[in-house]
Amino acid sequence: MKVLFIGDIVGKRGREALIAHLPMLKEKYAPDFIIANGENSAHGKGITKKIYNQYLSMGIDMITMGNHTFSNDNLMTFIDQADRLVCPANRDTDKPGTPVRYLDYKGKKVGVYNLVGEIFMDSVEESPLPAMERLLKYYPADIHIVDFHAEATGEKAIFLHYFYDKVEMIVGTHTHIQTADECIFKGCAFISDVGMCGGYDSIIGRDADEVLERVTTGRHTHFVPADTPAVFSAVFVTFNDETNRAESIERIQIRPEY
Hints:
Blueprint: E1 2-6, E2 8-9, H1 11-29, E3 33-37, H2 49-57, E4 62-64, E5 85-86, E6 100-105, E7 108-116, H3 128-138, E8 143-149, H4 153-163, E9 169-173, E10 183-185, E11 188-191, E12 196-199, H5 208-217, E13 230-239, E14 246-254
Parallel strand pairs: 1-3, 2-12, 3-4, 4-5, 7-8, 8-9, 9-11
Antiparallel strand pairs: 1-13, 6-7, 10-11, 12-13, 13-14
């Protein structure tokens, strides 16, 4: 089995990068499944029905979310019908949304799981370790793919060492900076952060001038995605069809030309 996982898609520029690069990557890697983190899709926060449907039309099989899952109210108009959307298991549990979705690969259940970290993250209702234990108990699968949407690299490493023998793939999202620690750890594919698809000349996808104004003046500003050519970030993971364990992981980063 081959999986292409695309990092946080940030605003219009991130979506443009997806349109520009995904066809070539599909041809090059021929993934069985494409998964993308979509929590920053709609002007940097949340997702809309139009964007959700756009992703599906491009061949994305599953969309994971994060701390901005419900930042755009439009989600509530279609979330009950969004059967390719995975929402964090340990945050916003009073709202609709499913923390695990399944894909089928040659009769095997491929579970896609979504959680948020608790270090430097607000409104987390349950620590990710017991939350993941609960998901594994009530949502079993043959192959487990986890989007761990978290801030701290150390927390992501803890998650790997706790679950490497129970799941087959753990990818970090949220920080928007692709890390260089991709590995196969005892049969589990891992990277601390996949990175983002968003304006490269930016502050993690956000307009640099807007961020600097807020920091230097203390004035409240609105989140403005950077309107600059975008970087595209992803990982490509292969699995052994007999053991279901991960065999290889490749970092993908396509930077814009300046």
